TrEMBL record:
Keyword Metal-binding attributed: no
Lineage: Eukaryota, Viridiplantae, Streptophyta, Embryophyta, Tracheophyta
Entries under InterPro entries matching the protein: Cyt_c_biogenesis_Cmc1-like
Entry keyword set: Disulfide bond, Mitochondrion
Locations listed in the record: Mitochondrion
Location (main, coarse): mitochondrion
The keyword Secreted belongs to this UniProt entry's keyword annotation: no
GO cellular component term of the entry, any: mitochondrion
Family, similarity comment: Belongs to the CMC family.
Protein name as annotated: COX assembly mitochondrial protein
Organism whose genome encodes this protein: Vanilla planifolia
Length: 77
């Protein structure tokens, strides 16, 4: 296989991987909607104070997303 052909195949693989990762994130956000809503409610009307005032909600959302994304990655290595 030539260098150009190999480069094209790698490019296609990267595009497919990016699309799959995007779909996984979209699905995880839907499944973690409860935590996203709690975070959004906490963050409403705040600026820098979000960092410390919404820490609990951010951790819950990130935990949910991490769990779903890492489980999916383990199923589809």
């Amino acid at each position: 296989m030539g260098y150009v052909q190999e480069a094209r195949e790698n490019h296609v693989k990267k595009k497919v991987e990016e699309a799959l990762r995007s779909k996984m994130k979209e699905k995880a956000l839907k499944e973690c909607d409860y935590f996203a809503a709690k975070y959004a409610e906490c963050a409403s009307g705040k600026t820098l104070s979000i960092v410390w005032l919404c820490r609990k909600q951010a951790k819950e959302l990130n935990g949910c997303l991490h769990q779903l994304l890492s489980e999916d990655e383990q199923r589809h290595p």
